[in-house]
Amino acid sequence: MKKILLLLVITVITVTSCSKSPGNEGKQEKHFPETSVAIVNPTVANIKTFRYLIDNKILSCVDTFGIIGVYHAKQNYDFERSQKYIDENNLMIKLVKCESELSVKNIYVQNDCSNLFKEIFERTKGVFFFGGPDIPAQCFNEKTHLMSSITDPYRHFFELSFLFHLLGGNQNENHVALLENNPDYTVVGFCLGMQTMNCATGGTMIQDIPMEVYNISTVEDVLNMPDAQHKNYNSYFDYDDELTGYNFHKIKPQGDNIISKIIGRNEPYVLSSHHQAVEKTGKDLNIAAVSPDGKIIEALVHQKYRHVAGTQFHPEYTGLYDRNIKIKLKHDDNDDQSYLSLYAGEKGENFHRQYWKIIGEWLNYLKK
C-alpha cells in the first residue's frame, strides 16, 4: 500500500495546453498542479489523442492543466513506451500504476487499489476512459460468447473497479460512491469506456451485435444491413490493409439530457468500431442516444451526477477534426476521403465540437 501512495505523490506540474511550453524547460513548479485530469490506460496513442484535443482547442483547457496517466502493472501493454514518449517530448504527464492484485472476485468491493482511486479522485477534476477490447463476461455475470475476445483482463479489472468506486453499482449497494463527495466531478468514457461504465454500475452487455440482435453470422449479411454495421466489416476480407476499421452511421437522441439536446433533429453521423454493446443499463444510467433503428444504445448519462457521460462511438478520434486525415471505407474507393469532406457542419462536425465544448465546461466548472 505504501508503494501505491508513494507513486501518487505527484511531482510537479504547472502547464499550459497540457505540454511543456518552449523555453520554459527546468522552470516547472514543484507542487501538484492546481487543476489536473486523469487519463486511464495512457498508451502512446491515447496520450497523442488527448494532446491533439487540447492543443487544437477542441477540448478547452484551463489555465494550468496537469495530466496523470493511470494503469495497472499487469496490463497487456508496455508503459515504458509511454514514459519514453513523454520524456522525448518533454511532456508534463505523470504515470501512476497500481500493482495490487485484482480479479473478478474483488473489483466491486474495497480492495488494495481503493486508496489509489480515492487519491486520484481527490486530486483531479475529471477522468477519461478510452476504447479497447472486450470485457470478460464474468465481470457482468454471464457466460462468454464465442465471438468475445478477452485479451487484457487486468485492464478491465482495474477500470471496472475504478468506475465502480467512482459511481457505485447495484452489485454492492453498501458501497458509497466517491462522487457523493463531489457530485460535479467529470467522468467520460468512449466505446469500451462507456461499456465499462455500464458494467461497473451493474449493467450487462450484448456480446456480439450481429448474432444477438440481428440473428446474422456472416460478413456478407452484415454488409447488406446498414443498421447492423457498427464497425467496418469490409475490412474482414483482408483485400486492403488501408481500410479503416471504423464505420459511419447516424445516431438519434433519446430522453431529455445534455447529449440528446446537442444531437437535436440533425441526427449526426458518428464514428464507431465495436461488436459489443450495452444491454441492460447500470445503476442510475439513462440512455441519451440510440442507433437509427433504436436497437443499440449509443450514449449514456448519469441521472444523479450531471458531469458523467459515455458514448459508444468515438468523438476523440482525431480524423473527425482534420481534413488531412483520409479515411478509406471500401475496397473499391478510388479516392480516400476525410470525415469532414463527408460529414461537415450539421452532418456531424458541429455535434462533435459541441460535445467537447460541453466536456470542457464540465472540467472548468470546478476551477478553483
Explain what the structure shows.
The chain is α/β, with parallel strands linked by helices and 368 residues long. It has a single domain (2-209, 259-265, 275-324, 353-365), classed as Class I glutamine amidotransferase (GATase) domain (Rossmann fold, 3-Layer(aba) Sandwich). Helices cover 27% and strands 15% of the residues. The strands form three sheets. It has a nine-stranded mixed sheet with strand order 3-2-1-4-5-13-12-11-8, sandwiched between helices. A two-stranded antiparallel sheet has the order 6-10. Helix 4 crosses helix 5 and helix 5 (153-167) crosses helix 6 (192-200). The longest helix has 17 residues, at 349-365. The radius of gyration is 20 Å and the shape is globular. The model is unreliable at 1-32 (pLDDT under 50).
Output the helix-strand order: HEHEHEHEHEHEHHEEHEEEEEHH
Uncertain spans = 1-32
Instruction: Give the CATH class.
Output: Alpha Beta
Helix content estimate: 25-40%
Radius of gyration from CA coordinates: 20 Å
For the termini, the CA-CA separation is: 30 Å
Please outline the major beta sheet.
9 strands, mixed
CATH architecture: 3-Layer(aba) Sandwich
Q: Outline, from the CA principal axes?
A: globular
List how many beta strands DSSP finds. 13
Strand content: 15-25%
Mean pLDDT: 89
Keywords, separated by commas or semicolons:
368 residues, alpha/beta, Rossmann fold, nine-stranded mixed sheet, two-stranded antiparallel ribbon, 13 strands, globular, disordered N terminus
